[in-house]
Automatic annotation (TrEMBL):
This is DUF3025 domain-containing protein. Pfam families: DUF3025. It comes from Undibacterium danionis.
Amino acid sequence: MTQFYSVIDWSRPWLASILPAAENILAQEDWRVALNQAARSAGLLNHRDLPLQFIPQEDLPDGVAYESHISAAGKVPTRENLHDFFNALVWLSFPQIKRQLNALQAAQIETLGIGKSRGPARDAATIFDENAALLVLENSERGHRLLNCLREHQWQQAFIEHRDDFATVAQVWSFGHALMEKLVQPYKGITAHAWVVWVSPEFFKQDVSLQATQLDRQVSTQLQSHTLTTADYTPLPVLGVPGWWTGQDQEFYADEKVFRIKFRIKRTHPVHI
């Protein structure tokens, strides 16, 4: 039987962050049962130390907010679609980050309620949850130089001149489940909200499972000690990441519809009369 997730190309580099979790689920017949087995085997808990479960969307009680239900009951409403499937795989891959994000979002809902506006903290947490990529950088001159190029939108320098840095002092890990969903049918303009993670040179010598464990722990600690705002992110056109797409030459990066020039506010001097 063809499953809804059969359209996913698991060889894509942007799915490497969740591939180990996915392989276990894809090997079994019932994806929802497999998700819950994996969660139990890993001993996953929410921020209230309740066992994590993936439940059908219709089991979410009427009038209860999605994030509040995860917080209060440890139950993640999960529809049979790519968006929620990727979300579940991120829970299995980065459980500490996800539980901290849920704690932040649930606390904001409890304080401010559900309204037309999420408020700045919850908005920033939602952006992280849905569209973040972890930009992992060596805490060195090379790492800081690359970050400066990205923040200044110096795309040619970042992706062509410093291309080799992405194999030695930099990595990009997909995190946001909406970002992954968009990348099922990739197009050049897809842009992530990059969250910077500084690491030592030893990080890049570890195997992938140890790297993932370190990132999960390190980023969740960052989120506990930092008040999130939308200013925390830097835009990252993900198909510009070296090796993530074909034809990445100078003409590719010269497309200003995607690789935009940084907008700067012009400051004017006051006129004295």
